[in-house]
Amino acid sequence: MKITRTDIGAMGGLSVVVTWEEGGADRFRAGDELPVSDPDST
Prior knowledge:
The chain is mainly beta.
């Protein structure tokens, strides 16, 4: 994961936007569980 930020969707809902180091981005609704860990910590 490279960057995380919040955003307001077209219908006014809050979301979290994650930008991946490998390229690309995904948007998740606020309130969704986003398990995040350091890949080397397992």
